[in-house]
TrEMBL record, chain A:
GO terms for molecular function: flavin adenine dinucleotide binding. FAD binds at G14, A15, G16, H17, A18, G19. One of its GO terms (biological process) is tRNA methylation. It comes from Diplocloster agilis. Belongs to the MnmG family. It comes from the Bacteria. The lineage of its organism: Bacteria, Bacillati, Bacillota, Clostridia, Lachnospirales. GO terms for cellular component: cytosol. Homodimer. Heterotetramer of two MnmE and two MnmG subunits. Residues 547-618 form the tRNA uridine 5-carboxymethylaminomethyl modification enzyme C-terminal subdomain domain. Its cofactor is FAD. This is tRNA uridine 5-carboxymethylaminomethyl modification enzyme MnmG. It is found in: Cytoplasm.
Automatic annotation (TrEMBL), chain B:
It comes from Diplocloster agilis. GO terms for molecular function: GTP binding; GTPase activity; identical protein binding; metal ion binding. InterPro entries: G_TrmE, GTP-bd, GTP-bd_TrmE_N, GTPase_MnmE, MnmE_dom2, MnmE_helical, P-loop_NTPase, Small_GTP-bd. The lineage of its organism: Bacteria, Bacillati, Bacillota, Clostridia, Lachnospirales. GTP binds at residues 231-236, 250-256, 275-278. It is an enzyme of class 3 (hydrolase). Residues 221-379 form the TrmE-type G domain. The gene is mnmE. The keyword Secreted does not apply. K(+) binds at N231, T250, V252, T255. This is tRNA modification GTPase MnmE. Belongs to the TRAFAC class TrmE-Era-EngA-EngB-Septin-like GTPase superfamily. TrmE GTPase family. PANTHER family: TRNA MODIFICATION GTPASE GTPBP3, TRNA MODIFICATION GTPASE GTPBP3, MITOCHONDRIAL. It comes from the Bacteria. GO terms for biological process: tRNA methylation; tRNA wobble uridine modification.
Length: 632, 458
């Protein structure tokens, strides 16, 4: 039978948040890119929560933006409410979260993809990976068509052998009843890829008209919205925002759940996949936090042009009748009409330790992957990996060095390092606590950290890069200036300090010293700083953070210095661990299996002890000395 | 390049003793031993069970070097983790050296100082603090130091540090959990709780840090300076304690012009004694240098022994010395009690706040009282190492100090009402510093340092 046969550079399988970033990055780097999806209408679909960002995820979005990704720009165009979270805490944990108009988000992203040069979208299921001698050569579709490619990026999300379940009802579909992809798993297994089965879930959607908002607390957006993208003009995001609503579960809710636990597929054993501990269903919360008599429930709009409301905090896989009872116990939801039931979804994904930190498979050259397929959860985590996979697939084809961000450079680095190094037995969610050096990895300085990298890669324009250089210069100059501005104890100064409830000056000081006082800051001191230049707000923010947290930043930089030492010790790819007699057997096995790129990565592998690392260090040192000697 | 050479050394100290042990470790250990061992029953060591003892002779050509017991232990259940053979021989230096030479001629090489421990460490047989304790053990000069090293080896220090580290880790985990799940984990009133916990931790660490001083005195000996007016009997005292004539003793005042340094062991406590020229105003150039040196030594000493001649009266020079020892750890020895007393114990008591011990260096009386006073002063009357952990290592001391500094910074952050997420930076530093002692924090600096120490010898 004659079949279609075509050639391209890169094939991207999947058009979710990972697939979109991967395809855009590849095409923008000049690669002829084919993007496959089971449904063009569901490009950049948000099948769960209607928001982008949030604690630590907001960091990811800003990093994606600084590297030249699309997510930040797209949410800036389509958000309907925005909030900076954790502002009462330190700047490291401030995080931006925006409610999206889901349909708009999807439509807008599709428009960008459709208008990107070198990028072709194709509605078709990929059923087989073609590989020769451990190297990918292309893919085969359900229709039998063959697409030859130099690299393939798998971003299959939750679609592989997907099954949706609530109560006793289950259907073999992807999210939102979309068609599952049932063949690719077998093809992967044939190539020797180790698969896991994970599960995740989503709450019900409720008709807005059936909700009594009087009984809930209204949650407003910020009066002054900060955009996600460093390229978005802050003026453009000061829009009329919609509200979200906060309510709580109660003992009655919990009682219903407890009574029906035996009907939950999670507890009856019908679901075998492992669910995320950090995004638990309401059943899990009731069981795990049995001492809590209530849990938060956020009612969030799914968009402007729909009455559907998302019930945040109450994902579930209980039967339909129990769901209805349960939701109706919540104040304000007494008469709630469910539009879509809550459900759990099971899907195939991989053990991501089969990947290099470049997101390329160790044993199948040219095959990359990102997103939930790698065992993560969340749109932002997916997009971040998709971006890196897309960049690296392109760089590899271009014969350039692939990029690896380390844990001290970006949350993206932490995310990928965790995925490819640690054993994840449940969907991996980004969290602030996972980043050791988070005071340096703030959302407010993502551009300062990563724009240069994005520029070198080729996804950031010269113009944008030059603007960043200018910003750096302004920050540096202003920090220098305020260190030198002398402030005497004049009446004006003392009055201002009194007004700000700060101790009056006993003797002269510098402006910088005053900014460092916990109760003061850069902006409030403007009246006593007549020589202050007119600087953009983001520059002022950086100046203040640099001064206020100087000591902490310095100590964290020192920690990074220590960390980098082990990270820089590269392990030769052909190192024969069996020959290092003093390594413990378990360590040898793990090191052989995962072939870490550096001593640093090796130290994070479970089963490799600090003593093993000392052995490796000594061995490397001996190796180096021997090389030196034989070189002489 | 990874096959370890087989190494050998005399495992017992370098002096004559009843029994001596030559240890051989490495892949070839058993083969090397086989080449020099003759069994009356024609046994071959390579065929014997592991962890067994065998009687026989060590031969060199046809000559019997010694009658010995040979212990064969195969790795990994050995000290180094490698195949190990120990030859128990008669303890004479000459015999031991001849056997060692035979071992080396037959395929082993002489071990570098600390190399057995290095291998044990490399083979995952001991953590860093244990490895360092072994170094201390090798360096230990007296039995208390030995006991302290042994208790470190058994992990008393390890347990203590691990305990403190676990507590800090717990706090970090709590803060992080609360940051990630503010709905379920509240940080209300946490700063106050943390503050209290920090103070408790700091107290523990300060105790450990201070123990370093004791630890050093245990390992290296108490730096002791003998001062007193010329001819008060300082040198006689030194000779009495040493039991030999080391200082020139005459009855001409000012005989000791040099500084004499001696290490001596007084009922298990090691003293590094410096005998100084008597403190008095002098025009003699040589003696002048001695006097100023004595003052300098007295400033750095752990202990000053002030010898007073009871047969003369106190004068200006004594005033000067009494000033010197004020606020310092010192013992006053009232010497020459065999002569008629001009200066009495009562009189001295009014002038100094230090213990006064009457002795007669000439009659050799009062030494027991001196010993007792020393123990009271330095080891609270009882030298017990079972329930007390001493830090004996400079690196450990530094690490504990670092941890303390970091905890103080956390306290400062609490006082400054910094957001809780800031605490973890310094908590982590404290944790890493302590981990550097237990080997839970791997830094290449540390590994380098340890190994340079191992290879430098002791």
């Amino acid at each position: 039978m004659p079949v279609v046969e075509e050639y391209c550079d890169i094939v991207v399988v999947g058009a979710g948040h990972a697939g979109c970033e991967a395809a855009l990055a590849a095409a923008r780097l000049g690669m002829k890119t084919m993007m496959f999806t089971v449904s063009v209408d569901s490009i950049a679909l948000m099948p769960c929560n209607p928001n982008i960002g949030g604690s630590s995820k907001g960091h990811l979005v800003r990093e994606i933006d600084a590297l030249g990704g699309e997510m930040g720009k797209n949410i800036d165009k389509t958000f309907i409410q925005s909030k900076m979270l954790n502002v009462s805490k330190g700047p490291a944990v401030h995080s931006l979260r925006a409610q999206a108009d889901k349909a708009e988000y999807s439509r807008s992203m599709r428009k960008v993809l459709e208008n990107t040069e070198h990028l072709q979208i194709k509605q078709m299921e990929v059923v087989e990976l073609l590989a020769e001698n451990g190297e990918i050569t292309g893919v085969k579709t359900y229709s039998g068509a063959i697409y030859h490619a130099k690299a393939v990026i798998l971003c299959t999300g939750t679609y592989l052998k997907a099954r949706c379940i609530y109560g006793e009802i289950s259907s073999y579909t992807g999210p939102n009843g979309l068609q599952a992809a049932n063949y690719l798993t077998d093809s992967l297994k044939k190539l020797g890829v180790k698969m896991y089965r994970f599960k995740t879930g989503t709450p019900a959607r409720i008709d807005k008209r059936s909700i009594d908002f009087e009984k809930m607390e209204e949650q407003f957006g910020d009066p002054e919205v900060v955009p996600f993208s460093f390229t978005t003009d802050p003026e453009d995001v000061q829009i009329d925002q919609v509200s979200c609503w906060l309510t709580y579960t109660n003992e009655h809710t919990h009682e219903i759940i407890r009574q029906n636990l035996d009907r939950s597929p999670l507890y009856s054993g019908m679901i075998e996949g492992t669910g995320p501990r950090y995004c638990p269903s309401i059943e899990d919360k009731v069981v795990k936090f049995s001492d809590k008599n209530r849990h938060q429930v956020f009612i969030e709009p799914e968009g402007i042009h729909t009455n559907e409301m998302y019930v945040g905090g109450m994902s579930s896989s209980l039967p339909e009748d129990v769901q209805q009872q349960m939701y109706r116990t919540v104040p304000g939801l007494e008469h709630a009409n469910i539009v879509r039931n809550a459900y759990a979804i099971e899907y195939d994904c991989i053990d991501a330790r089969q990947l290099d930190p470049t997101l390329e498979f160790k044993n199948i050259k040219g095959l990359f992957s990102g997103g939930q397929f790698n065992g993560s959860s969340g749109y932002e985590e997916a997009a971040a990996q998709g971006l890196i996979a897309g960049i690296n697939a392109a760089l590899k084809i271009l014969g350039r060095e692939m990029i690896i961000l380390d844990r001290s450079e970006a949350y993206i680095g932490v995310l990928i390092d965790d995925l490819v190094t640690k054993e994840n037995k449940e969907p991996y969610r980004m969290m602030t606590s996972r980043a050791e050096y988070r005071l340096l990895l703030r959302q407010d300085n993502a551009d300062l950290r990563l724009t240069e990298k994005g520029y070198e890669i080729g996804l950031i324009s010269r113009d944008r890069y030059e603007r960043l250089i200018e910003k750096e210069r302004q920050i540096e100059e202003e920090v220098c200036r305020v260190e030198q501005v002398h402030i005497g104890g004049t009446k004006q100064v003392q009055d201002l300090l009194m007004e700000l409830e700060s101790t009056p000056l006993k003797s002269g000081t510098t402006l910088a010293e005053l900014i460092r006082r916990p109760e003061l800051g850069y902006q409030v001191l403007a009246p006593i700083d007549p020589g202050r230049p007119d600087l953009p707000k983001d520059v002022q923010v950086q100046v203040e953070i640099n001064l206020k947290y100087e000591g902490y930043i310095r100590r964290q930089l020192k920690q990074v210095e220590q960390f980098k030492k082990l990270e820089k010790k590269k392990l030769p790819p052909d190192l024969d661990y069996d020959q290092i007699s003093s390594l413990r057997i378990e360590a040898k096995q793990k090191l052989k299996e995962y072939r870490p790129v550096s001593i640093g990565q090796a130290s994070r592998i479970a089963g490799v002890s600090p003593a093993d690392i000392s052995v490796l260090l000594v061995h490397l040192e001996q190796y180096r000395r021997n090389q030196e000697q034989s070189g002489r | 390049m990874n096959t370890q050479e087989t190494i050998a050394a005399i495992a017992t100290g370098g002096s004559n003793s009843g029994i001596g042990i030559i240890r051989i470790s490495g892949e070839e250990a058993v083969a090397v031993a086989d080449r020099i061992y003759r069994s009356p029953k024609r046994k071959c060591l390579k065929e014997v069970e592991s962890h067994t003892v065998h009687y026989g002779y060590i031969m060199e050509k046809d000559e019997i070097l010694d009658e010995v017991l040979v212990l064969v232990m195969r790795g990994p259940s050995t000290y180094t983790g490698e195949d190990t053979v120990e030859i128990d021989c008669h303890g004479g230096m000459l015999v031991m050296e001849r056997i060692l030479r035979a071992v080396i001629r037959n395929g082993a090489r002489l071990a570098q100082p600390g190399e057995f421990s290095k291998r044990a460490f490399l083979n995952g047989k001991m953590d860093l603090s244990k490895a360092e304790a072994v170094m201390d053990l090798i360096q230990a000069k007296n039995e208390y130091a030995l006991k302290s090293s042994v208790s470190q080896l058994r992990g008393a220090l390890y347990d203590k540090i691990t305990g403190a580290r676990q507590e800090i880790l717990h706090e970090i985990a709590f803060i992080e959990a609360a940051l990630d799940d503010p709905e379920h984990i509240s940080l209300d009133h946490y700063p106050e709780k943390l503050g209290a916990k920090l103070r408790k931790l700091e107290e523990d660490l300060i105790k450990l840090k201070d123990s370093f001083q004791n630890g050093r005195m245990i390992r290296e000996g108490i730096r002791t300076v003998i001062v007193g007016k010329p001819n008060a009997g300082k040198s006689s005292l030194l000779n009495l304690l040493l039991g030999e004539e080391r200082a020139i003793v005459t009855d001409v005042a000012g005989t000791t012009r040099d500084i004499l340094e001696e290490n001596m062991n007084l009922s298990g406590i090691s003293l590094n004694i410096v005998d100084t020229a008597g403190i008095r105003t002098t025009e003699d150039q040589v003696e002048k240098i001695g006097v100023s040196k004595a003052r300098a030594y007295a400033r750095d000493a752990d202990l000053i022994i002030y010898v007073v001649d009871s047969s003369t009266s106190l004068d200006e020079s004594d005033e000067e010395i009494i000033e010197l020892i004020r606020e310092r750890k010192a013992l006053v020895l009232l010497n020459k009690t065999d002569l008629d007393a001009v200066t009495t114990e009562e009189e001295l008591e009014k002038r100094v706040g230090h213990p006064i011990i009457p002795i007669s260096a000439k009659e050799k009386t009062g030494v027991e009282n001196l010993e007792k006073a020393l123990k009271d002063m330095f080891f609270h009357g009882e030298v017990s190492f079972n329930d007390q952990v001493y830090i004996t290592n400079v690196r450990h001391q530094r690490a504990v100090e670092e941890a303390l500094d970091s905890l103080k910074l956390v306290e400062q952050s609490v006082r400054d009402q910094m957001p809780e997420d800031f605490y973890s930076i310094d908590l982590r530093n404290a944790c890493d510093a302590l981990g550097a002692i237990t080997g839970d924090t791997v830094g290449e600096d540390l590994v380098n340092e340890i190994f340079s120490k191992f290879c430098m010898g002791k």
